[in-house]
Design brief:
By secondary structure, this protein is mainly alpha-helical. The chain is built from 20 helices and two strands. A two-stranded antiparallel ribbon has the order 1-2.
Amino acid sequence: MSNWMLGLEAVLTVDAMLMLTAGVLLGILVGAIPGFTANMGIAILLPFTFAMDPLPGLMLLLGLYASALYSGAIPAILIKTPGTPGAAATVLDGFPLAAKGRAGEALTVSLVSSSVGGIIGVILLALLVPFLAAWALSFGAGAYFMLAVFALVMIASLSEGAVLRGVMAGLIGVGIATVGQDPIQAFARYTFGIENLSSGIEFVPVLVGVFGVAEALTQYEKFRKKQEMPLPIGTFSLPLRYWAKLAPTTWWSSLIGFFVGVAPGAGGTVASFLAYNEGKRFAKGGNETFGKGDPRGVAAAEASNNSSIAGALAPMLTLGLPGDAATALLIGAITVHGLRPGPGLFEANTDLVYGLFVGLIVAYILVLIVGYAGTRLWGQVLRVPRNILWPIVLVLCMLGSFSLRGNTFDILVMAVFGVIGWLMMKGGVPIIPLVVGVIVGPIAESNLRRALVVSDGSFTWLLDPIPISLLILTVLSLGLALWRQLRSSRVSAD
């Protein structure tokens, strides 16, 4: 408790609270614009923290990090375009809820589950951080490869009635991720002499294209055929019994998001899809409504996405290893002040470490307050006429794709994948597996190559405890998904 009091005393200063509040407000803006990721926002603000004391500077960055992950759900729900990569799973049930006139409900669920998931993650971090370092170190290259494969195959079970098409879409996504430089030997491949492809196909333009541009093209088709009235927003006030039904999903998804976040490199996007899949698998009262507008799907995706922040901080604080791109930037913010992340940080700078814990909890409380005050404002987006809204969405998509590297080629990538996503939607091919394939492809390939190099070309590492456990779970998940599809086909035939 004395450590917590030190952290509370460090955070409740004028400088730290001002920076935390500023970070939260900026993060909501950054996350709500498609293509503007939390990592980008942290990278832009990082130089400004060098002139500050360590804790206020970290409060600015952590406030932005936490609120950007929450606000990424706003465009995911309202216009089917994730503001941040971690909100991709929120699209699955958030947008169908908005399409049913229940956008207020979806926005409220995403706000509360984001805040609760983030706070649960911080509490778990503070309680378990002494034990997490050894667990994070136990993940070798083979374990990371199987984790990526497991995440990809799990998504197949989300493709109701199209499991094999889902797997194929995932493999295409992995193929897209191989374009560019080889991760081990650094030679160019699949670039076809195009210089812009030598650094690979960036994930953000792909994400913005297959969701935002594809949905804009779909809405344009509908608009041409029939003038549509603005969608209703629905209620924002939800009864206590409603939250009681969401509580188990929020709790378990927070646990999944935290422990996936601890594994360096996995990140909130993988965590949200895994939690969504498990929430669907074990949904009380059936999972038939998942993917069609089930608030439990929104709660699962958002709680896990936000709890993964605390998980990613564990290897950073205990080992000095970044859990994701954002924590890599946070390490830079710490080391520039002459501090070194690792076990010694807990002894020499207890107030800073526990200040981070307290600051993250306060950040999520601020997210809850600011989000609640602004939720009704976000919902007004649906009242904008369709013929005005979607051209604005396209402009924002182009702006977000261009801002990533300042390269017009990324706008072309966005447009190409927008058409691909539109054709996939028309053909009934699931988009989510392709997105997940692009995410986990580099993780799977680089770690498979490393595992084979270390083992001299042998696959004996598959028999290690973590890889073999993940392999068994992968086979069972794929087999169960195919069995469910076969049984469903037989019932339909009967």
